[in-house]
Amino acid sequence: MAFDAFLADRIRQQLKEKHIFFEELNMMGGLCFKVDNKMLCGIHFDKKFGDNLLMARVGEAVYEEALEKPNCLPMDFTGRPMKGYIFVTPDGFDADADLSYWLDLCLAFNPLAKASKPRKK
């Protein structure tokens, strides 16, 4: 199943309203939004959960606090949670204010995040 195009449009719209320059990258059936060449957030269809999840790169400083919020899960692709990254279930970003909250957390961490090493061609 492909990522949720409506959610992608909502993220694009909010980033544009916040005057954020971003790039998009299709990844493993999902979509990743990048700011300053660093992952900001993304959309992932989770087969175990059965729905699209918002991937949020919030950083380790707020990771534990974020996981205490309703509708948040550890981001776990490999059987081991990735610190600093969370999944938010649809109920957690259904309202525009909720989506904005998660994007603001991601944007606050982005300047502190390390960029991925460029791939060799």
TrEMBL record:
Domain (TfoX N-terminal): residue spans on this chain: 26-108
Pfam families, sorted: TfoX_N
InterPro entries: TfoX_N (IPR007076)
Domain of life: Bacteria
Protein name: TfoX/Sxy family protein
Natural source organism: Mariniflexile gromovii
